Predict the 3D structure of the following.
Amino acid sequence: MRIFISIIIFYAPLFSDSDLIFFPDDGIRLDSSGIRKVLIDPAGVYILYYTQGPNSGVATSEDGLNFTIDDPQNYPSFRYNLMPDGSYKHYFIDIDNDTVKLNSSSSTDGVTFNLDNGNRFVFPPNDAITSTNVYSTIFNNILGEVYMIYLAGEIDNARSIRSESGDNGFHFGSYTTDIFGDSALGGGNHSYWDPDAIVLPDNRVRIFTMNQHGHPVPPAAPKGTIYSFTSADHGETFVKDPDYRLRFDDFVEFEVLSLNDPKVILLPDGRYRMYLASMIRTGQGSDSLKWSIISATTSPSVSAESDPGIPSIINLFQNYPNPFNPTTKLRYDLSKSEYISINIYDHNGKHIKSLVNSIQGAGYRTIVWDATNNLGQPVSAGMYIYTIQAGGFRQTRKMILLK
């Protein structure tokens, strides 16, 4: 069975299109399908979890545009969340009479989950949660704090809770209701929110939503526009961004009658791509209507003046393999000659090893860490943090050493 680690990015690469305006990609990603989740594994393979009626499946792609159906048994459940310690968690709501609890199950491989003891959070008695669905946004910072946004209930639909530092998402507090400033915006409907937030280069958090509820009933279709909300306080409150990110009439290759389930991921080249479940019309008559997964990408073309032999941005990639034992490769791209430092720290922030500390020219580079400290001594198993500093640019990622 193929196991992979989802990459959770806290420091995203610098890129010019910070407003994240999306432009339609040509063609259809997957025919006659709905969408659950999209991600990129450490080997650079795009994984698309899709639905076809009551059935679920997995499709894979090398470029994120041309997908082929794959065996779902080769991949972990789409419901998992990668935690700071490298394990997986699945969160859910348990309603016991008038008491509403957030519970969880855990996994070491992303496939088999076991129920955790106790409750992660017990909501106030006056909270109007009526749904057991948890539409969560999980991301973690350098301190190992796990943040969650969930959408459920009828009043003040959108809520936010935050875990304790270093707690690995087991205990939550800092409960905030109505995080979008208007309870009507919460929706409580996963068809219209991207449950996976992205973190912008300035560390703000962005989540995407559609302005229309309900599926289209041609010819009176609701069409659809994708908007976004941004948070400057790690997901506790959000403010609606001006203008829109994508509209139904941006597509000219076919008629778009709905835009649902926006899923946004960061591409290896620093751009963002949005995948959507959409009803489209490809010709005349009712037989030309079908559900499909389509996509749109920020800054669809790279400048022709760019040297293809030189990266367009500075970027530190997820190490591979991860988890690892005893060695792992750290890949990084440099868009210009810079004084570079790459350092490794333990989960408490103690400096473990300096891998690079010199001026390096532009190019695509890889360095190997052999799980030793600056004295050449083996280090213990656990989570480690590695950073790249290049001028005013800094990026941080995490990795897991197994023993």
The chain has no helices and 31 strands. Residues 1-17, 184-191, 213-221, 301-308 have pLDDT under 50 and may be disordered.
